[in-house]
Write a structure and sequence with these properties.
Helix 2 packs across helix 7. The strands form two sheets. A five-stranded parallel β-sheet has the order 3-2-1-4-5, sandwiched between helices. Strands 6-7 form a two-stranded antiparallel ribbon. Strand 6 and strand 7 form a beta hairpin. With 244 residues, it is an alpha/beta fold. It is globular, with a radius of gyration of 18 Å. It has a single domain, classed as Rossmann fold (3-Layer(aba) Sandwich). The N and C termini lie far apart (38 Å). Bound molecules: zinc ion. Zinc ion binds next to helix 8.
Length: 244
């Protein structure tokens, strides 16, 4: 345990919920922060409240460490970053090679706000679900970007903040395995039932991997990771059985 208190960037999605579980396992005091930047759907904001409540209900040890939630209004940033997530534009691949869901420098803004809040609250480990494996190639999710930002925040506050990204090197299949390791089948179930990842904000259809349209890039990534995880578990079981 590097620090006894952490602030988790928490969106109510799969990755940030796994990070919240990781933080509750590793720090004595954990608070969450969410950002309102003019998202297309309130589904995300509703998922945040539901996921926190379910964690508190199902994991008493974690509940004792879970502190307040904060929501920061960064709508003016959303107005600048006018992309598919914050407007009615279609989700497409752009000539830059990035999907139109990319909000430029979003994580730089979010971590800077989180540091200002963490400074006030005495939370010096900032935790985020960024991942550079198996991802859409968002440059602000890269480890190099976040290490540079960590240094800038330390210099700019004179506080030894750390940016923790436990999912950075994991594939989406690894993230499911990590979920099970952290909180067993109950945590996997919570992720499936309560978290929200779908870019289109759909919660009509329940798939093995959770709710969503099943067709947008976020749903595809989540489904693919789940299937790969299930496949590797099945072959592991077979191996164990033959060894016996
Ligand atoms: Zn979807």
């Amino acid at each position: 345990m590097k620090d006894s208190a952490a602030l988790v960037l928490f969106s109510g999605g799969q990755d940030s919920t796994v990070c919240l579980g990781w933080a509750l396992d590793n720090y004595e005091r954990v608070e969450t922060v969410g950002f309102y930047y003019g998202q297309r759907h309130s589904v995300e904001m509703e998922a945040r409240i539901r996921v926190r409540a379910e964690i508190a209900r199902r994991f008493p040890e974690w509940a004792a460490r879970l502190g307040p939630d904060h929501v920061l209004d960064v709508a003016s940033f959303g107005a600048i970053a006018d992309t598919a997530l914050t407007s009615e534009a279609e989700i497409v691949m752009l000539s830059s090679g990035l999907p139109s869901t990319f909000v430029p420098a979003r994580n730089l803004v979010f971590f800077t706000y989180a540091a200002a809040l963490g400074y006030r609250r005495g939370l010096h480990a900032l935790v985020g679900g960024m991942c550079e494996t198996d991802y859409s190639g968002y440059p602000d999710c890269r480890d190099a970007t976040l290490r540079a930002l960590e240094e800038a925040i330390r210099l700019g506050t004179e506080v030894p903040f750390s940016i923790e990204t436990p999912l950075m090197r994991l594939t989406k299949a690894d993230t499911w395995a990590f979920t099970e390791k952290l909180g067993g089948a109950a945590f996997v179930d919570l992720i499936v039932e309560e978290t929200h990842t779908c870019y289109r904000g759909e919660r009509g259809t329940r798939h093995d991997w959770g709710y969503g349209c099943g067709a947008c890039p976020a749903c595809e990534l989540r489904a693919k990771g789940y299937t790969e995880w299930q496949t590797s578990r099945a072959s592991e079981d077979r191996r164990k059985n033959t060894a016996m």
